């Protein structure tokens, strides 16, 4: 059990020593010395016993056989042989006695050594117990250290990984550094070039700055002129737009007037022709007198009735006379008619809005352009007044009124 513990301790100590945790301790001294002495004595006795057996066999069996030559045997006496054996045995005994004496001395010495070793063994035993306790403590420390070692190993592994990562980062940084160094050299070269260019550009800049100030003054002046011109341009643009609009309107009016002028010119030409034709006829008509009871004015003849009829019957009477109800073509005709009528009487004329209320038409289908309505007329009183009449007035040229067509009135025919 002790030997096993010592061997374990040897192994542990060796292991710890290899790991550098404890200093080397010589446990060889702690083996039991009594066992060593016993073993040594046993071995020595066995060697002596083997030597005696060997001598006996040699002198008693082998030597007589070797000297059994028939020639010599015949010459030697049996007493000599015994004397030789006795001498040899005596010498051998002396040797054995000397060896026994030596062995006795050695045994005494060994006994002393055994006693000393026993004492030393007890001391070692005590030391061993102490060392066992220390070993337990060391074992506990070892376990603690083992755990710490495991932790340190884990930390070491982590550190190793970190180191590898750092190494990779280092390599990357080195590559980056090399690249940056290359870039730095390139930048340095470019910097030198830029410095040269900078000096040149600085001179150009000064020149340009001088030019810039000069141009800035010119630009300010031009800006003032531009602003003034811009305002004038805006005014002119507004005026231009107005003039353009006026021009467009005038152009449109001009075109309309041109068309109207052409139409009027055509009408004028037609009228001139008609006038020429009618002028000849008028001259012929003017020279011809109206029928009895009719009154001439220009180219027309007028009949003023003495009887009273409604508007439709009056017209039928005029048509029967080869004429129609009076159509007022001019202010002169209105004034002429007012002059030939009895004082303050009303007479039907060829005027009606029976087709469309409020739209007055002459009996020949022409629209009424010039009117002489009395103030407040046409009143269409009761919604029943659809025929026109003229009132004679002593002053002026007479006035018009609308009245119910069924009323009986005097009337005026014209042909
Ligand atoms: Ca007329
Ligand atoms: Ca009416
Ligand atoms: Ca009326």
TrEMBL record:
PROSITE patterns on file: C_TYPE_LECTIN_1, C_TYPE_LECTIN_2
One Pfam family this sequence matches: Lectin_C
Coiled coil residues, start to end: 86-120, 149-197, 240-274
Residues of the C-type lectin domain: 297-414
Classification via InterPro entries: C-type_lectin-like, C-type_lectin-like/link_sf, C-type_lectin/snaclec_domain, C-type_lectin_CS, CD209-like_CTLD, CTDL_fold
Record's keyword terms, sorted: Coiled coil, Disulfide bond, Lectin, Membrane, Transmembrane, Transmembrane helix
Spans traversing the lipid bilayer: 36-58
SMART domains, alphabetized: CLECT
GO molecular function terms attached to this record: carbohydrate binding
Name assigned to this protein: C-type lectin domain-containing protein
């Amino acid at each position: 059990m002790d030997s096993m513990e010592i061997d374990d301790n040897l192994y542990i100590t060796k292991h710890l020593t290899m790991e550098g945790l404890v200093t080397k301790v010589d446990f060889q001294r702690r083996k039991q010395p009594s066992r060593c002495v016993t073993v040594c004595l046993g071995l020595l006795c066995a060697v002596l016993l083997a030597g005696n057996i060997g001598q006996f066999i040699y002198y008693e069996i082998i030597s007589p056989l070797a000297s059994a030559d028939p020639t010599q045997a015949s010459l030697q006496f049996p007493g000599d042989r015994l004397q030789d054996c006795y001498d040899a045995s005596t010498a051998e005994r002396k040797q054995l006695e000397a060896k026994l004496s030596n062995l006795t001395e050695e045994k005494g010495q060994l006994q002393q050594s055994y006693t000393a070793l026993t004492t030393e063994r007890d001391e070692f035993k005590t030391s061993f117990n102490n060392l066992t306790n220390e070993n337990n403590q060391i074992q506990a420390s070892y376990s603690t250290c083992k755990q710490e070692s495991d932790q340190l190993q884990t930390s070491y592994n982590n550190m190793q990984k970190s180191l590898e990562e750092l190494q990779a980062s280092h390599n990357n940084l080195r590559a980056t550094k090399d690249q940056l160094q290359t870039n730095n050299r390139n930048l340095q070269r470019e910097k030198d070039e830029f410095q040269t260019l900078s000096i040149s550009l600085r001179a150009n800049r000064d020149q340009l700055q001088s030019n810039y100030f000069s141009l800035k003054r010119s630009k300010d002046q031009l800006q003032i002129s531009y602003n003034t011109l811009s305002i004038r341009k805006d005014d002119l643009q507004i005026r231009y737009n107005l003039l353009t609009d006026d021009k467009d309107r005038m152009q449109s009016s001009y075109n309309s007037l041109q068309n109207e002028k052409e139409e009027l010119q055509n009408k004028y030409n037609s009228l001139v022709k008609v006038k020429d034709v009618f002028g000849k006829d008028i001259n012929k008509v003017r020279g011809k007198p109206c029928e009895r009871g009719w009154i001439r004015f220009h180219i027309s003849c007028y009949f003023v009735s003495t009887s009273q009829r409604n508007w439709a019957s009056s017209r039928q009477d005029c048509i029967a006379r080869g004429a129609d109800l009076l159509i007022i073509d001019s202010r002169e005709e209105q004034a002429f008619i007012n002059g030939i009528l009895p004082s303050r009487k009303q007479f039907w004329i060829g005027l009606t809005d029976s087709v469309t209320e409020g739209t007055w038409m002459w009996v020949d289908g022409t629209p009424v352009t010039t009117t002489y309505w009395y103030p407040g007329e046409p009143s269409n009183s009761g919604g029943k007044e659809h025929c026109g009449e003229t009132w004679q007035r002593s002053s002026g040229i007479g006035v018009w009124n609308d009245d119910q067509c069924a009323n009986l009135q005097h009337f005026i025919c014209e042909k």
